[in-house]
Protein: Inositol monophosphatase family protein
Amino acid sequence: MNKEALTNIDDLVRHWLTTLDDIIPQLIEDMVTTTKRNRFDLVTNVDKSIQQNFEDFLHEHFPEHQLFAEEKSNEEVNAYQGHVWVMDPIDGTTNLVKQQEDYCIMLGYFIDGEPTLSYIYDYPHRKLYKAIKGQGAYINNQPLSQPEDLKLEDAIISFNTLVMNDATIHELNSASFGYRFIGSCGLDSTRVFLGQFGAHVNTNPKPWDIAAQFLFAKELGLKMTTLDNTDLDFAKAGPFIISNKACHDEVLKILNANTGYQK
Ligand code: IPD
Ligand code: CA
Ligand code: CA
Structure:
């Protein structure tokens, strides 16, 4: 795809994202929460409406593009062929419901499986993270630079303690500078983009939790792999780490000792 065509898509998507500022407040005011697999697995009208709204946007502007998203069946989608948008309409739904803060909207655009455009919109703080293939990553249109090397002993790391065994939690805590966990895979990842966290680990993400991060990792010189240090498949997902390159191997070494995590 040429630069002009890509810029056109970027302009339209960024405009679509600004329209959310007008609709989200009312959706939150009318919030209806339901559960999916269990009482902790939440979905709201906010998630559903944002996804529907983006689906309508695609139909209008790019009818040949496919949508691979959390709140729909994706059986008919071939994620590796053609123009595919992977969407998490709200990442951090628990935070939205319980705190009205620390959630985001995530979009990853792939052409024949190649990450081409990515967006993570931290709506409560009005911060838009964007990556464009070959052109870098941005926050609110300001270029982001590659984070400096962070050794594990100097790094804050982020993971869900509920799925780690005690010995692993203890080892990670003593090898790193400290621990923080936001509870939104997208926002925990943005901290790694900015060099605020050394690494974020999620042992059971779905494609929409990690699709957008591929391009940011590429453009910012970060490592994004499975927990076995192999390549990740964006359409299958599974246990993953996004990390500053200076602490990636050490985090994995600890995680893989003592069968340290559950999926
Ligand atoms: C969840 C959040 C959470 C992560 C879970 C995800 P959701 O996404 O990103 O931080 O630990 O694995 O499922 O359900 O809020 O979209
Ligand atoms: Ca999610
Ligand atoms: Ca979600």
Notes: The pocket of D-MYO-inositol-1-phosphate (ligand 1) is lined by residues 88, 91-94, 160, 183-185, 202, 204-205, 209 (CB under 6 Å).
